[in-house]
Amino acid sequence: MAEFTMELNDEQKEVRDWLHGFAADVIRPAAAEWDEREETPWPVIQEAAKVGIYSLDFYAQQYFDASGLGIPMAMEELFWGDAGIALSIVGTGLAAVGVLANGTEEQIGTWIPQMYGDANDVKVAAFCSSEPDAGSDVASMRTRAVYDEAKDEWVINGTKTWATNGGIANVHVVVAVVDPELGSKGHASFIIPPGTPGCSQGQKFKKHGIRASHTAEVVLDGVRVPGSCLLGGKEKLDERLARAREKAKQGGERVKNAAMATFEASRPAVGAMAVGTARAAYEVALDYATTRQQFGRPIIDNQGVAFQLADMRTQIDAARLLVWRASWMAINGKPFTAAEGSMSKLFASETAKKVTAQAIQILGGNGYTREYPVERMHRDAAIYTIFEGTSEIQRLVIARTLSGMPIR
Ligand SMILES: Cc1cc2nc3c(=O)[nH]c(=O)nc-3n(C[C@H](O)[C@H](O)[C@H](O)COP(=O)(O)OP(=O)(O)OC[C@H]3O[C@@H](n4cnc5c(N)ncnc54)[C@H](O)[C@@H]3O)c2cc1C
After folding, report:
1. Of all atoms in ligand 1, which is nearest to the CA of residue 392?
2. Domains and their CATH numbers in the chain
3. Which of these, 108, 222, 227, 364, is most buried using a 10 Å CB contact count?
């Protein structure tokens, strides 16, 4: 097991500086434009693909870094550039992780390359779990997958919502109910290959923030996919369902809410995104406070401003510590006995919301305009307390883990 360290090694520093350069030179200058356009920034994704940032190889390298710091460091730098554009670059990763976690080697080899495309023809992928009536409460999912044995095909019907890259993705990964009796234990994930009839984009959402990232409904109307599109394969699914039915019969197992558990290991990565946005806003505010003159002196000369900056930086550093600890635990197989993954996401996302609001206050009237980036950063920061489990759900996970009680 790697020792926990707060010190990046030389190789990690080199990667961080390279990512920071891309974030500063390519992402940040494009941020305001794509926020206004509310469209996927394809040219920026293509640029990221050309230099090797938009690829599975890059994320795999960071992921398998035994220190655990590869992914949080990468997320922090990219989201420091701009959250909407960065989510357009890393959003495909959520679908890729869905396949890596549950797929066979053949499925991984077939579908992940099609999720990314190549530098001359970039593609994106979408992970579709949420539904209009199943957000935090994943067990209420209604999208249904039924096996047609005669044709060895799955028939999928339902509507997914809030899917990042939904409808514009080359490959969609869709979670559906295969056994309604089993709650979230009766779910399975399917690949929807490019151009599958019946799979279409519904409403595209106009959002408060991260507007360069495409978010939409995905409508599945009589979608038929081959048996080989069931992630992990039929045999494994049948075994898993049989075990779940047995446990349900014994009445032993409390059916867990999948939204609360599934993402526990990926939550530090979202925390790292939030740290990136918070740090970006803090840096703008620090710079502004040292140059803006009122009453004949820089506004940072007032404790009322300087102390805010002191608090902002302290909270950002504390958030990063929690994120790095949880990331190190996750990669080294240390169980989250105190829901450390959720703690890191909760604290970092609340910090991003708070710090970006303080940044607006420090910039005064300028902070409230779109001439300065902190207004956009504050809108962007609001997503971190919502997706991959809201702050309330993180608190539930932490409280239940600590107490062992079925807290509601
Ligand atoms: C921009 C964006 C991108 C997204 N991308 C994806 C994606 O790619 N794929 C995907 O599948 N989903 C995605 N989502 C969906 C996201 O994960 C859900 O919005 C989130 O899980 C919350 O679900 P909900 O919106 O239905 O809120 P609800 O579950 O309806 O919650 C509403 C409020 O009630 C609170 N609440 C609910 N239950 C409890 C409880 N038990 N105790 C205390 N408070 C509670 C919540 O915390 C929240 O404040 C995305 C959402 C957005 C906005």
Report:
1. 47
2. 8-120 (1.10.540.10), 123-248 (2.40.110.10), 256-401 (1.20.140.10)
3. 108
CA distances (Å), origin 248, targets 181, 186, 241: 9, 11, 10
Among residues of the chain, what percentage have pLDDT more than 90? Answer: 92
Is residue 129 lining ligand 1, measured as CB closer than 6 Å? yes
Residue 254 has pLDDT above 60, yes or no: no
Distance in angstroms (rounded) separating the CA atoms of residues 296 and 306:
16
With a 6 A CB cut-off, is 163 part of the ligand 1 pocket?
yes
Sign of CA pseudo-dihedral 381, 215, 226, 143: positive
Instruction: Evaluate: CB of 396 within 6 angstroms of ligand 1.
Output: yes
388 catalytic? Reply is yes
Contact 341, 268 (CB under 8 A): yes
Residue nearest to atom 12 of ligand 1 (CA): 130
Tokens of 158: 């339902």
Which of 47, 246, 388, 392 is the catalytic position? Answer: 388
Q: CB neighbours (10 Å) of residue 60? A: 14
Tell whether pTM > 0.70. Answer: yes
Res. 261: pLDDT tops 50: no
